[in-house]
């Protein structure tokens, strides 16, 4: 928490009556117990929680991890279902959102889904919303034009586990940044703690018709590689016309490429090369003359603007 405050520039005074932390070490949170006769919900614990929430006007409560808040078997659907529904009742009675943080079983390299939580399936089934966290994959990084391995490995996507995944450029992402706590002394460095911040996928600016026409002109009717790893990547042409670097500005170039495909100025096409299908792009629809009239920006193509030419005394 100290690292997050340092990173985001939040003073402690701003958190005094708005943020409350309890490690559970001195007073453990236990909402249910289990013995050979079955499980029992601790109504006294929930009543105390409700009173504290109302007294301090708490609007969001995080329980992390959920498994440490009860003493029943994780695999018991009956017990877990009862506990989660009691949490839901607490939320309804107090108007406080309750977030139960749960860990997953071992999955190898595949992404986490709502069904991958440890233990009983009753937990995600009873939850109103399930959010999953997954590190960015190499494929997603490639599609977004991120070639720095250190960068894309620090990016985490948040998905609604019960719904469909959004495309990489429309998903919700957070980036883990390193924050020095400033507690180092002399030759001993300070502690480095990971801090999360919102991260947005690169977006392309509005397509300039003059630039699009120039890109299509330079294509000359040929097919170009769709993948940024291809030697004949169409992004090299786009970057040259727009005035970007195809390496340093790869993410922005790829965003423009996606925008041109979405607008049908570029058309994806698989072509058979050396016995395998290769993803290519060819010229799509042409830029209409009316588009050039509505939005003339010749300076975007490296030419002097009409105003500049008119005012040139030579």
UniProtKB/TrEMBL annotation:
<feature type="region of interest" description="Disordered">
    <location>
        <begin position="289"/>
        <end position="314"/>
    </location>
</feature>
<dbReference type="InterPro" id="IPR027417">
    <property type="entry name" value="P-loop_NTPase"/>
</dbReference>
<protein>
    <recommendedName>
        <fullName>Regulatory protein RepA</fullName>
    </recommendedName>
</protein>
<dbReference type="Pfam" id="PF13481">
    <property type="entry name" value="AAA_25"/>
</dbReference>
């Amino acid at each position: 928490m100290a690292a997050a405050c340092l990173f985001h520039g939040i003073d402690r005074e701003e958190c005094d009556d708005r943020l409350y932390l309890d490690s559970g070490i001195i007073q453990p949170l236990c909402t249910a117990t289990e013995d050979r006769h079955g499980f029992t919900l601790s109504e006294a614990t929930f009543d105390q929680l409700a009173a504290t929430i109302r007294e301090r006007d708490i609007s969001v409560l995080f329980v992390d991890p959920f498994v440490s808040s009860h003493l029943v078997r994780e695999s018991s659907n009956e017990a877990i279902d009862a506990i989660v529904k009691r949490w839901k009742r607490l939320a309804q009675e107090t108007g406080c959102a309750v977030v139960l943080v749960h860990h997953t079983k071992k999955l190898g390299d595949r992404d986490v889904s709502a069904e991958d939580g440890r233990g009983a399936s009753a937990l995600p089934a009873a939850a109103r919303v399930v959010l999953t966290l997954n590190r960015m994959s190499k494929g997603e990084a490639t599609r977004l034009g991120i070639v720095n391995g250190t960068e894309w490995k620090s990016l985490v996507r948040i998905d609604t586990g019960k719904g469909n995944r959004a495309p990489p450029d429309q998903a919700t992402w957070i980036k883990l940044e390193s924050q020095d706590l400033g507690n180092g002394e002399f030759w001993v460095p300070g502690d480095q703690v990971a801090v999360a911040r919102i991260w947005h996928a690169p977006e392309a600016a509005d397509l300039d018709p003059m630039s699009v026409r120039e890109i299509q002109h330079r294509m000359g009717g040929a097919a170009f590689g769709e993948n940024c790893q291809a030697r004949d990547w169409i992004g090299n042409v786009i970057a040259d016309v727009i005035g970007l670097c195809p390496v340093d500005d790869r993410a922005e170039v790829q965003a423009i490429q996606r925008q041109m495909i979405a607008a049908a100025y570029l058309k994806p096409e698989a072509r058979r090369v050396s016995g395998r299908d290769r993803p290519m792009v060819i010229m799509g629809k042409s830029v209409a003359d009316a588009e050039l009239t509505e939005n003339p920006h010749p300076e975007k193509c490296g030419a002097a603007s009409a105003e500049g030419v008119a005012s040139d005394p030579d």
